[in-house]
Design brief:
Helix 2 runs antiparallel to helix 3. The chain starts with a helix and ends with a helix. The chain has a single domain (3-104), classed as Helix Hairpins (Orthogonal Bundle). It has helices spanning 3-32, 36-61, 67-114. The protein contains three helices and no strands. With 117 residues, the protein is mostly helical.
């Protein structure tokens, strides 16, 4: 085995190890996430790790067999992340409006007492 092949093998193992670590960390955050936004980001991390693994395999084998799957998974992941983000945004705005409606009366009273006009 020549030096170039050994170096390629080492880089491949390090790359796969990094992707596995990121996928495991994302999966743990997905299971233990405190909020829906945390879980959405964690799912995106796991998906990107999967996509990166397929891309590394395609580059090493010099084969385009998995690239169709890669494009489909990337499009679905992007669409799901955008949809989930919109959902979280709507829930946040609704909660913020409900909170401001209940505190609007007390803030108006404080403003009128505190002003010296």
């Amino acid at each position: 085995m020549n030096l170039n092949a050994e170096l390629t093998t080492i880089v491949l193992y390090v790359t796969y190890a990094g992707l596995i670590v990121s996928a495991v960390c994302g999966a743990l955050r997905l299971l233990k996430g405190e909020s829906l936004a945390d879980r959405i980001i964690a799912l995106d991390v796991v998906l990107i790790s999967l996509i990166s693994g397929v891309a590394v395999r395609a580059a090493v084998t010099r084969s385009g067999v998995g690239l169709d799957l890669l494009v489909v998974v990337a499009i679905i992941g992007f669409t799901a992340a955008v949809a989930a983000t919109r959902f979280v945004e709507v829930e946040y705005d609704t909660a913020r409006r409900q909170g401001s409606d209940s505190s609007a009366g007390s803030e108006a009273g404080a403003d009128s007492r505190g002003s010296t006009s």
